[in-house]
Structures are given as structure tokens and as C-alpha cells.
């Protein structure tokens, strides 16, 4: 069991684009990809199992056991198809992450994808009011193509590079000659961040020229804003009270 | 030496069922499988060696050296045969556990097993008077089949999933299309637990429609109950004495 | 570079026996094997390199660089040949130790060795006046064969098993049907122990019906005895002085 | 993705010599090799990617993503060609370092290199005024050949051996019958050391009978000397002042 890819079916896909949304900083990428796949009624067509995932099974409500895996879904939008790489796991070792990322790029190549977008979060250590979407690309032409859809490029950033599936799938795509970009929603890095996910999804939809309802993400985002405001008020009250007590 | 499987013989087996009983929480699964294999006079037919077992040999009473290994036994019951996977070791790395679990499922498939049962313990952190036997399955139909034999299903439980051989053999069986279930005896998780083993074994025997004497397990269970009662008494006496002293 | 075995020559060997003497507890096995190989003017015929040895080179007096390796030597004694496995390294991971041990057994099999002896120390945590030589074997007949040469067999001992090359080569030999034994000189486990090495070597020579001068080992052993006596005296003097002071 | 070697082109090279300059102690080897490659207008012809490099991408000023890699350059000097192995990474595990070193030696062999020079630093724990260049070699004849160009050989040194790419490429070259030497500039081991790099480069140029301007290295070296002098002065002033205060 290096990797086992089990195809439930092997769909015919027209000019497909692969979108990766695995867990990561603030789960920004995962939530955006999951949301889009759900709204487009994407169908699962394959599971990727690997000895590099955690060595256990998890159980659903019927107590049916599921090996840790990544899943591939497809959906039609207009003249073309999207492939989604979704799941709850990344490889647990450096070697495993390389192995899985190359497996995914090879699967994408076998479907003749024209582009790959990997989605992630960009942790900046502080709460962001209006999160930007930063980009990293496989080529300068890819940069020009997506810049006009609101992707921000900061030379050399993220300075620490991009780790894990989002980075490696982008990097291996470039080595293998596939156009690719990584889109990263700014986020504090401390919480799951639906606001950043929403911003990321809107940029991705603009690039792909499609539109789905983002209401759930927006609603969760409003709830978090409220929660954050209350926390802030409480902190300020305490802080004033404390000064008053001293005075 | 990825894995080396050495067959002492390759038996003809009728409609076999594989039962896994490797070490784990409270050794609940191991004791149940060892007991059943012994009572059925199961015969060893193969050893599985692996570079993922601990790198040493142990010695028997003749000072003959034995590599760490897993062993396969077979036994006849009525119209069919059972295969037992027994041993003192699980793989020492995550990769090794996947590797070994897949090896076992492939061996099982080569004998056209109709079902696989993996046996384990379910640690709940407190002493259990009447341990239940919880189940996890490869399919809903498998759940319905074994539920009537006294297996308890709690949606989504164990919440932490099932780690190691019991979980992976179940998960890989499902991926490879083999009916499988994991049966877990409730246990504190602190001691070797013959009572839980006995409960597990009785459920397994009901499922497999067979019956062996469980007296040794029951006797060890009674001894542990006595021991636990004494510990409890002593703790209570001390506790009273202490209060008296204060008063 | 899984393993690379480089043959300087491939000797014709008559009924060869392989003797393993790699570093281990008290270097008991290594010193015995090195000493015997030297006295028999054994010639090197192959090097075993491996990615499981430490990732560096060491330098000789000409500053020529040497990768960590194991070396194979051969020597003639009467009607037969000996193969020596010597070196300064064992594999640095569990997987690597299995890999190398299997490589060695396969090389031995390619020369149709009739027996394999692995040499080691048996650490007992206290200084030993007259170290015994303990044995572990691949079969009961092997036990009977070497018992009469002064090998001590204690049922089930060493209780902790035999780790590393000595244990794995013995264990894999057994799996592959080659007669083998591990001979272990008793030793404190705290120092390099030439006395235990000498005892081990004498037993091995009796088994192999050969005889070489052990003077260097004996001389080093006498020096260590003297050194230990002095340490003991000093400790006792201090201890008496201390009591006198109190009194 | 064990290793992937991507050739941008496969140049015809005349009697090539490979020069390795990867990161290491004081970056002495890397700076010397980078400087020489730049001055000779070396051209990149291949990238070596590996699952043993860190699992991430870094970004250039266009936000184009680059997998961690090693790079091969070539340059002509007179009648022959040089190959440079440059980069910012070494393998992150022992196995990975072996794997990459063997890959490089195999690539070198495929170009029929006549010699390999690996460049590094030799950390001595104290600031060096006039750093020597120490050598380690694949053979005594190689030692004689480079000794006259100012390489110092100290029997058995470095005592701790040579770790990483410089050591392993030298060691594997020797095993595979390719003449090789490791040249090590003495350095404190605490700072990046352009002075040691300059000394190393001058020795290498003498061996290869070529000459490039070393002004940048020399200038950086002068700046570091000045900086070190100032630090020293300040420390001495403080130290005197302190004594005065006490007096």
C-alpha cells in the first residue's frame, strides 16, 4: 500500500481544472473548496488511500469504518469540468507529502487538466478585517492572468514559503509543465476563518467565471465577527474597570 | 525483507473466516482469539515476518531464537474453516502498520475468505462491571447481520477511531471489497481484562455459531474481580480510618 | 544505494562458516572476531555499503576517505574456509538493521555456508570474574552440537531477547533454513571487555576445532584486572578512612 | 518522486570536472562554488528534485514557486568543462543524503567526469587569521596531485569525519572508482566566512589551473575583519573600564 487510488468511476471531463482544498491554516482553503463542491453538487469519483495518512479508521453514524483518505469529486460548470481534491488529511511525513502531491499531479495530468488551483490560508498573526487573497504561481503568465481577478502578489511572499499539499502540488505542477497557482486567504492563523474562505472563494469564482451562493460562509463569518466584538468589549470593560479600581 | 510470509503448508480451506487477535488495549482481542484458537486445536500454517516488527529475536525454553512475527493458524468448525491471525507484535511505525495490514488482507483474499473479524478492546477509563461489545463494520448490511448477536453500535463511536491492526485490517478490507467487522470489548484500559475478553468471545461465538468452553477466561475474570474488591475494601477502610483520626 | 556490495574478488570457499563480529555490548563479539581474523591472516574480499549506516566518511592516516561499511574477509583453516563479517557499524534504524541482516544471510547463502555464528556480549550489570559463554540457536540440534564445547544455555535467556545484527542474522538464518548460533560472552556492559572476548573466542575455537594464540586479549584482560583491583582498593581505602573519621 | 532530474538541456562536455558547493559549515564551500560559477558565466542545465528535500516551495520576486532543489551548471575553461552542483538544500534525512549523493555521482559518471571536488568548511571553534585548506581524498595519488597546490593534509583529520554531501559524494565516488577530493577551508564555524571561502577558491583555482577575480569575496572578508576588530576593541574597552571601576 504505497498509494491506492480507487476509482468509483472514471468520468469523461471537458477541459478540467483541479481545485485542491485540504486542511491547513485556518482551514481557509478546505472550507472554500468544500463549499464550492457542495454548491455545484460535485460527485465523488475516486478515493486516494496512502500509508502516509494516519494509521487508523474513523466511523460514521452507521459505525461504518473509513480509512483516512483524500477524495476526488467532479462537477460541470458550463463548457467545462472541475475536479476537487477534498479530505481531512495530509501526509504525516515529509516523504509522504511529496508522494501524495506527485500522485495528485499525475492523476490531474491523466485527465489533461489545463490548470491547477491550490487553496490555503496565509497566517499573519493578527485578526484581519478585510482579508486579501495572495497568490503564488507556476509562471509569470499565470500571474498576469489571475492578477486582474483581485489576487495580490507581494514579491517573495510568503517569505517562509508554502508548506504541505498546497505548496508541493504547485511546485510539482511547475516541474511537470502544468499551469498552477496557489491562492491564500489572509487569516489570523488562530481560528477557523470563514471570512477569509469567502474572500478566497469569490476570487476563485471570478477566475473560473462562475458564481455560487456564499451565504453559509458569510453567515458564519458574521457570527464570528459578533463573537469577536463581544470578546473585545469584555476585554475593554475589564481593562477600564481595572484602571478605575487602581485610581 | 519487506515482508516475508513463510508457509509451513498451504491448507485447503472451506469458506474461511479470518479472526485477528493481536495485542492491544487490555489485550482483550488477543486473549479472546488465543483462547478460541487453542480450544479449537488450531494449527499454524504460516509465519509473517517484517522489517516493521521490533529488530530483535526472543528465545524459547530451548534457547531457540524467534524473530518477532505474526502467525496464521487454521481450524475446522462444522462446514467451514477459521483462520486466526495471532502474535505478540504490531508494526512499530505507521507505514509498517499499513504494510502489514495490507499483507494480511491480501493473504485473506488469496484464501477467498468470506468475512474478517478483528478483535480489540475499547478503553473507557473506568472499571466496567458488565462490559458491552461494540462494533464497527465495513458496511451497513454487516451491521445488521451482527447486531442481533449482541453487538452494540453507538453512532460515530469510538470517536477517536480505531488505531492499529484492528482498524487498518477493517479499513483495508472495506477498500478491497471484503466484508469485515471490528468487535471491541469495553475495558478500563488499565489492566489486562479477561472479563471483557470473555464477553467478546461469547459474542463472536454467537456470530460464528460455535461454542467452546470459556472456563479459563471466566476463572481469571473471577480472580480479578476478587482482587479488585479487596483493593476497594482496603481503600475504603483507609479512608474511614483517616476520617476517624481527624474526628 | 539500498545496499551496495562490492566484491574485490569472489573467492572459492570450501564448506564455509560465517562468523559475525560487529560492535555491540562490551565489544565482546567484535574483539573476538577481529582477533581471530587477524591471527588467521584473513583477507578482505568484499565491502557492504548501505544507506542505513551513518551518513559520513572517516579518514585514514593518508586522509583517504572511507564510507561507513561492513567488510567480509575469508581465511582457510584445514579443510574448510571461514568468512568473517567485521566492521565498525550497525544499521542506524530498525528497518536498516533488518535490511543489512538479510543482505548478509543472502550473501552467506550464495557461498553455501553450512553454519553461521554471531558473536556478542551479554550484559549483566556487574563485573564478572569468570565469564560464561551463553548460547542461542536456530534449532535444538544446533544446541546439542555446541553445548559440549562449553556453551551455557539458560532457558529463555537473554530474557530481553537479542537485539541488532547478532540477533537478526540468527533469526533470519533460521527463517531461511541455515544452521546458526549466537554466542554471547558475559560482561558487565560498562567497559570494553577483553576477558569476556577471550572466553568467547576459546569456545568458538573449540566448536570450529581450531587454535590461535590469544595472548593479546589475555594481556589486555590482565591489565584491566589490575586496573579494576586498584580502583577497588582505592574505593575501600576511602570507605575505611571515611568510617574512621566518623568514629 | 524518489528523485526527479529534469534536464533543460544535456550539454556535450569535454573532460569535465564536477565541483560540489552545497550549504555547510560557514557556507565556505557554497560561497566559493557560487562565486566561481558566476565568474565563469556558468549555465544551468539540470535541476535535481527529491522527496528528501524540505516539503515546501519558496517564492521568487514574481511569486513564482520553486520546489527545493539542487542545480547543475556547466562552464567552459580552456580545453575542458566544469560542472557545478549548487543549491540551498541538503537531504533532510540520513537516507536522503545517501540517496542524493549517489544520484549526483551517477550523473557525474554519465558525463564521464575525470574528477570530483567537494567543497566545505572545517570548523575549529575559534576565529582563524590565515585559514588553511585541508584535504581528504579518494586515493593516495589524488593526495599527491593536490598537495602541491597548497592543500594541507593532517593524518586522520577531520577526526569526526566529513558529514553530508561533501563527505558522501567523496566516499561514493571512491566506491565507484572516480577520483575525488574534498577541500575544506578552516573556519570558526560561527559565522558565514568569506575569507575561508577565498582561500579555498584560490587553492581550487590552482588545482584546476584557472583564474577568476575574487574581489567580492575579498571585500566581504575585509568588512568582516573590520567588524571583528571593532567587536574586539569594544570588548577590551569594556574589560579595562570594568577593571578601572573596581580599582
Q: How would you characterize the overall build of this protein?
A:
The structure is a homotetramer of 247-residue chains. Chain A is of the alpha/beta class and 247 residues long. Chain A has 6 helices and 12 strands. Chain A has a 9-stranded mixed beta sheet, with helices on both faces. The longest helix of chain A has 32 residues, at 215-246. Chains in contact: A-B, A-D, B-C, C-D. The interface between A and B is medium-sized, with 22 and 33 residues. Strand 4 (56-59) of chain C pairs antiparallel with strand 11 of chain D, so a sheet runs across the interface.
Strand and helix layout:
The structure is a homotetramer of 247-residue chains.
Chain A lengths: L2 E5 L9 E5 L6 H12 L3 E8 L5 E4 L5 E3 L2 E8 L2 E8 L6 H17 L4 E9 L9 E5 L2 H8 L3 E2 L9 E2 H12 L3 E9 L6 H15 L6 H32 L1
Parallel strand pairs in A: 2-7, 2-8, 8-12, 9-10
Antiparallel strand pairs in A: 1-3, 3-6, 4-5, 6-7, 9-12
Amino acid at each position: 500500500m504505497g498509494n491506492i487510488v480507487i476509482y468509483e468511476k472514471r468520468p469523461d471531463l471537458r477541459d478540467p481544472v483541479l481545485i485542491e482544498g485540504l486542511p491547513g491554516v485556518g482551514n481557509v482553503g478546505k472550507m472554500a473548496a468544500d463549499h464550492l463542491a457542495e454548491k455545484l453538487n460535485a460527485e465523488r469519483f475516486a478515493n486516494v488511500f496512502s500509508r502516509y495518512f494516519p494509521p487508523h479508521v474513523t466511523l460514521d453514524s452507521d459505525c461504518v469504518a473509513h480509512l483516512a483518505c483524500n477524495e476526488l469529486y467532479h462537477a460541470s460548470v458550463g463548457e467545462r469540468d472541475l475536479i476537487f481534491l477534498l479530505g481531512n488529511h495530509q501526509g504525516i511525513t515529509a516523504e509522504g507529502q511529496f508522494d501524495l502531491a506527485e500522485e495528485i499531479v499525475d492523476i490531474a495530468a491523466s485527465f489533461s487538466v489545463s490548470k491547477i488551483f491550490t487553496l490555503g490560508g496565509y497566517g499573519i498573526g493578527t485578526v484581519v478585517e478585510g482579508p486579501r487573497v495572495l497568490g503564488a504561481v507556476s509562471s509569470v503568465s499565470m500571474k498576469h492572468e489571475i492578477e486582474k481577478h483581485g489576487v495580490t502578489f507581494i514579491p517573495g511572499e510568503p517569505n517562509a514559503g508554502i508548506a504541505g499539499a498546497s505548496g508541493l502540488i504547485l511546485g510539482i505542477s511547475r516541474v511537470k509543465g502544468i499551469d498552477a497557482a496557489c491562492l491564500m486567504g489572509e487569516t489570523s492563523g488562530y481560528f477557523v476563518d470563514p471570512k477569509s474562505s469567502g474572500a478566497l472563494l469569490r476570487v476563485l469564482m471570478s477566475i473560473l467565471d462562475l458564481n455560487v451562493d456564499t451565504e453559509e460562509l458569510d453567515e458564519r463569518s458574521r457570527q464570528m465577527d459578533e463573537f469577536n466584538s463581544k470578546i473585545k468589549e469584555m476585554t475593554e470593560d475589564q481593562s477600564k474597570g481595572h484602571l478605575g479600581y487602581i485610581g
